[in-house]
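Running co-folding for ME8.
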Amino acid sequence: MDKKSFYITTPIYYPSAKLHIGHAYCTTIADSVARFHRLADEEVFFLTGSDEHGQKIQQKAEEQGITPIEYVNPIVAGFQNLWKLLNISNDDFIRTTEKRHEKVVQEVFRRIYAKGDIYKGAYTGLYCTPCESYWTEHQLDENGCCPDCHRPVQEVSEEAYFFKISKYAHRLLKYIEENPDFIQPVSRRNEMINFINQGMEDLCISRTSFDWGIPVPIDDKHVIYVWFDALTNYLTPIGYLDDPEKFQKFWPANIHLVGKEIVRFHSIIWPCILMALDLPLPKQVFGHGWLVVDGTKMSKSIGNVVDPIGLIEEFGADAIRYFLLREINLGQDGNFSRDALIQRINSDLANDLGNLLHRTLNMVGKFQQGVVLAPEGRSEIDASLIEDAMSTVKTFADDMNNMKISHAIKAVWAFISRANKYIDETAPWALAKDESKKQELANTMYNLVEALRVISGLIYPYMPTTAGKLWQQLNLPGTIEELRLADIEKWGGTPANMHIGQAQQLFPRIEVEKVEQPVKEAKNKSEKQKSKKDKQKESQPEGEISIDDFAKIQLRVAKVLEAEAVPKADKLLKLKIDLGDEQRELVSGIAKQYKPEELVGKNVIVVANLKAAKIRGVVSHGMVLAASAGDDLKLVTVDMPVGSVVR
Ligand code: ME8
């Protein structure tokens, strides 16, 4: 049976400046969607590229005394390099200056002209040079400027070719109304309906005032106006003119993913061009929001442009990809902040995911000499883990099919937390001490490795390199690229008697320089959460927390292995503790009440999932519980095995 096909595009970017993290955001979204559909065993075509013509490029080249192609070549090479560094899996990269594209644009012009939908006229209008857009009077902003960039527009008058967009307005409106998924999110759809209802004028599609463009095939005084040229890129690489079979497979496109400000071009002008060509319309135009820095859109003039290459070098591509996809609800604007990025790396990647892998590999190594033994039977806890895994795969697939990317990631991370909790609930270190619990231990180890196998597939669209590392460290057969959704929709794909691989750190924890840092972040976070809390307040008396709030705190029994004073801090002791499956260091303010030697061997209770902080140069990873009254203070001790969960 033929595979289902899936065609996704990003916009083609202007080589007028270096790309910033906002552009990387758009391409990363498309990449995660393309990778998901490959995982779902579909035949995917993922296109990105560069939009190289137009007056602005010509002007910049002239300013530098070089030709336009000399100007764009190194910039476009920079785009391609960035996509490589970011692990973008595009199947083609289209440059609008390529011959293959010129041929298609000219043919599209010829066909529509032959049909009578392109005519020559005179254009007197308002033109925004930076946006390369014509506007009508009523579209301008309140200051009479460009409604997109708010810069002044110029009145221009010249001979030009026009495309009879007005002829298609009624058909387009009907199509939008009958196909609710065509323009997403809904807010953009409503905007477009309003736009069409205001009345559509024919579109000027040629210019004579510059020559950096594709010549109009019937009149070489004119070059084709950029949007007519740019939008047609979506037809070029899928064989519109030269490979009918390929074209049949991939057209209409499943998703044109674009920024919110260019939804209009994709959901109004582009469908009209397609209707004039008698081609079916794309299934969806999805308008994503902007990535802003401190609430402002990135711009060179403001000086808040974030360079993705520097970030990739510092934190790695997967961490950046994860942050962009997780942090921002697709369709809404989202804020980029270094602090938030570091917090995500530490809590979600190093802590949640890294710890799960590390703890699992450590325990299989320590308790079963590195061999994953065959499971037999299932406890209630096992069954609930498995049920959770399978429902997570389903949520993930549904969400990814519906472009709810951050929602899908949240579901995956909820499962990662669930698997970490499973370790606490089953307490394998205790099972390992009891010969009669050998099979129970084998089952637990199997389930953890199997959960990580499923997780590798679930994180693959977002963090392909990390997913591959996970796969390798588990030593699973084949490669992550060969894995298919169907393989993780069933529990039990990990072969029994498999030897696990070498454990290596996935994400080093990024040390927070100052202790104040987490305080500042916590403050920002608490401000953001304020309105949420306000809502909760209505149903929850002040000072009370819900059971869900309490469940966030992981309390565990730990044995103090070593204790020593922290230099130049008379209240602080540095403790080394054993949590059963790992050892850690933490700092505790108990030096006034306890001598170091009194503490060694004590079983204390520790907040195990407290965010790490640097205190007097020591990274403290957890907090010991103590009861205090005035100056009197006593550690909470308990006679239970190390690693036990306190609830
Ligand atoms: O518009 N956050 O090219 P472009 C999120 N050549 N997305 C952003 C962004 C930000 N801060 N800044 C830019 C063009 N983008 C045309 C497209 S398609 C046939 C022709 C996004 O390089 C922007 O929203 O100006 C747009 O989708 C894309 O980058 C390309 O912008």
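Result summary
Confidence is low (pLDDT under 50) at residues 514-523, 529-539.
Residues 11-14, 22-23, 25-26, 51, 230-231, 233, 258-259, 261-262, 290-291, 297-298 surround ME8 (CB under 6 Å).
Job closed.
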